[in-house]
Write a structure and sequence with these properties.
The complex is a heterodimer of chains A (329) and B (378). By secondary structure, chain A is mainly α. Chain A is built from 13 helices and two strands; from the N terminus they run αααααααββαααααα. In chain A, 64% of the residues lie in helices and 1% in strands. Chain A has a two-stranded antiparallel sheet with strand order 1-2. Helices cover 4% and strands 41% of the residues of chain B. Classes of the chains: A mainly alpha (329), B mainly beta (378).
Chain lengths: 329, 378
């Protein structure tokens, strides 16, 4: 059995049959099926997405310090890499923390995408190929063909309006998830991604069946919602805050506050300069009041250089009892 | 660093998902061959072809392409090859083909000169997937959107049309004054050719789409459905005579779609299923005589020659099933994908392969290749 056949058996076939079965429950509408399936799958993968978003957020918080290191050791690549790794280690942030959950989710996204393409079966040959993937379930055989008209669209044909919505939703999603950085190189990369991906998907949506575009739109909207509710932040969209309704312009959630606090605490015990801390405050723009100010000048007793106290170690310490185990009551 | 990895991953995955992972092969057409006056007519991707049955030489070929246009934003839309999925029909000096571009073409059989195209300008507003049939100076076909047309065979003049209102991919069957049409929306319609109106009070409804052409024999219409059933209906009123498998019945049950049309031979129905089996049924009672397992999906309609029924599986093996004992035997393994219906004349079987698209003429007794002709020269 080659890798393609294994992929079909363990990923694609289940996805196709679940999609067809689900459509039977949803009045035979493939449009509703695409929406429901995308929501279900994204919900199932929410823990991973959440982890990914937090990791991205943590990376964003480190950006000012990384920029500082870049300035400091920009000419010595080896030293820079060493210092960066040291910073990651001490702050408890994994540089691949946002990639791993994303990589785990990708096969599922691709299977969903392929399932939609195959079930849409826009021409006779595609429909014939679909038969290879069907389980021996009566519901699967009675549900086909699926209703391909949804709202104003024929899901088997491209749709200009939906293509535009794909572009807009993807731009918003990209804008929110692209890390805020002070590094001009990374800023340029971020800008390119923010423009190129939405443009690419808009043009693709104009030539692909709109069923696929519908999946992209729903997926983008879910990403936007998750991004907002998990991080309580509009990310890069904050620059467009005047467009966001006032009641949604909230500060970060408790978990982000904790994260920022942890970073601040690391800085307190490290020989970080006032300027460096000012950078963090400036970049984050929403940092909790009071954090880092009271004990900002406090240094590690050993006076050693670098950030030797990791975030995890800091978190285990109860407030007001640094270095001591809490008493049992 | 992370940014670069992220960009790389996103682009890689987008590229994989959008291009490489759609899968499947390139576009193919699976028109079966029609034989008349020592000439084989077959539709292909972007071509209508006539081949001499004696030696496999091209008699003529006509290119079928959509017209290019200037498109928007200065982008030109190139001409596209038109696929022919359904069988062609021959009557008098003309051969007819329904194109995926929503047009019907009539060519002279000896030179391939275009005699007429219907409609005269534009197209029918829907593609044509099923084949064309001819009876008594009338050409019948149906668009994929369910518009059944009757045209004059000589000049292509409009005679009547009837809107079924459902998607149709199947080739019509004609028997006497009645057309039988299976629809993608799971129904079988009977339409009177003289009036263009429905014959039965209501269409017969199955549990799945009907892609195959029904068979009419002894006042009974036999139709195969994607719901994995074969139905026998009374020709007059469309009432169910029997169905296989029976509701709640035990024993062999077809596992996948009936894409190929059933074939009648010696009062038996041979129904090839995509589960790789050919179900041989008694035409009168619907009882199962044999389920012959050929070991590969079948979407090509079988053909009867002599005392045998020949069946091709998608992987390229061609089997013979003897009508008496229902034993199968491999006649030839072409090792090429076969989706098109088989055709036969005397004791020669004609196979239209979809992989390396070609026509093979096989000796039915020995399985030897008499000639083979590629349909597209590079």
């Amino acid at each position: 059995m080659d890798i393609g056949a294994i992929w079909d058996v363990i990923m694609l076939q289940p996805m196709i049959n679940i999609a067809i079965g689900l459509s039977d429950i949803l009045f035979g509408s493939f449009g509703l099926t695409i929406i429901a399936l995308t929501i279900v799958i994204r919900s199932v993968m929410y823990p991973l997405t959440r982890k990914q978003l937090h990791a991205t957020k943590a990376m964003q918080s480190l950006q000012p310090k990384l920029a500082e290191l870049q300035k400091k050791h920009g000419k010595d690549k080896q030293k820079l890499a060493q210092e960066q790794m040291k910073l990651y280690k001490e702050s408890g942030v994994s540089p691949t923390g946002c990639l791993v959950p994303m990589l785990i989710q990708m096969p599922i996204w691709i299977a969903l995408y392929q399932a939609i393409i195959r079930v849409l079966a826009v021409d006779p040959q595609s429909f014939m190929n679909l038969s290879r993937y069907l389980y021996d379930w009566p519901i699967v055989y009675s549900a086909l063909p699926l209703e391909q008209h949804f709202l104003w669209m024929n899901l088997a044909s491209s749709d200009f309006i939906l293509a535009i919505i794909v572009g807009i939703s993807m731009w918003v999603s990209q804008k929110m998830t692209t890390p805020v950085t002070t590094d001009p190189k990374q800023q340029a990369q971020g800008r390119t991604m923010q423009i190129m991906l939405p443009l690419m998907f808009t043009f693709l949506s104009m030539s692909f069946p709109s069923g696929l575009a519908l999946y992209w739109v729903v997926s983008n909207l879910i990403t936007i919602a998750m991004q907002y509710f998990v991080t309580r932040s509009w990310g890069g969209l904050a620059t467009l805050a005047w467009l966001i309704p006032a009641r949604f312009r909230k500060t970060e959630n408790g978990r982000d506050k904790k994260l920022k606090k942890r970073i601040a605490e690391v800085e307190q015990v490290a020989p970080a300069s006032e300027a460096l801390q000012a950078d963090i405050v400036e970049a984050d723009n929403e940092i909790e009041e009071g954090v880092g100010d009271e004990r900002g000048g406090e240094k590690r007793p050993d006076g050693g250089g670098g950030y030797r106290t990791s975030l995890r170690r800091v978190r285990r310490r109860p407030k007001g009892s640094r270095g001591r185990r809490p008493k049992r009551r | 660093m992370i940014g670069k990895i992220l960009i790389l991953v996103v682009l890689l995955v987008s590229g994989l998902a959008i291009t490489g992972c759609i899968g499947g092969t390139g576009q193919v057409a699976w028109s079966g061959a029609t034989i008349a006056e020592e000439t084989l007519f077959v539709g292909s991707l972007g071509k209508m072809i006539a081949i001499e049955t004696t030696d496999g030489d091209f008699l003529w070929e006509e290119t079928l392409e959509t017209e290019g246009s200037s498109g928007g934003f200065g982008c030109a839309i190139p001409a596209m090859a038109v696929a022919i999925y359904g069988n062609t029909a021959v009557a008098g000096e003309l051969v007819y083909a329904g194109g995926y571009d929503g047009k019907v073409y009539a060519y002279t059989i000896d030179t391939g000169a275009s005699r007429w195209i219907y409609p005269r300008s534009g197209n029918l507003g829907a593609v044509i997937i099923g084949g064309t049939v001819v009876s008594q100076d009338r050409l019948y076909f149906c668009t994929a959107k369910g518009l059944v047309y009757a045209l004059d065979t000589v000049n292509g003049d409009y005679v009547w049309d009837y809107d079924i209102g459902e998607d149709v991919w199947a080739t019509l069957a004609i028997d006497g004054d009645t057309l039988y049409i299976g629809t993608f929306d799971k129904k079988l319609y009977a339409i009177e050719v003289n009036t263009g109106q429905e014959k039965w009070q209501q269409p017969f409804e199955t549990g799945g789409p009907i892609i195959s052409t029904p068979v009419v024999y002894d006042s009974t219409v036999y139709v195969a459905s994607f719901d994995r059933h074969i139905y026998a209906l009374d020709e007059e009123d469309g009432e169910l005579v029997w169905q296989f498998p029976e509701a709640g019945g035990d024993g062999d049950r077809p596992g996948k779609w009936f894409w190929a049309s059933p074939v009648l031979y010696n009062s038996d129905i041979y129904a090839a299923n995509m589960d790789g089996k050919v179900y041989v049924l008694d035409a009168a009672s619907g009882s199962l005589i044999a389920a012959v397992d050929l070991g590969g999906a079948i979407s090509s309609t079988p053909v009867a020659v002599g005392d045998e029924v020949f069946v091709a599986i998608e992987e390229g093996k061609i089997f013979s099933i003897d009508a008496a004992g229902h034993h199968e035997e491999v006649v030839r393994d072409l090792e090429l994908r076969i989706l098109a219906p088989l055709a036969a004349d005397d004791s020669i079987i004609y196979v239209h392969t979809q992989e390396e698209e070609a026509i093979y003429a096989l000796n039915a007794e020995t399985g030897s290749i008499i000639w083979d002709t590629p349909l597209h020269s590079e």
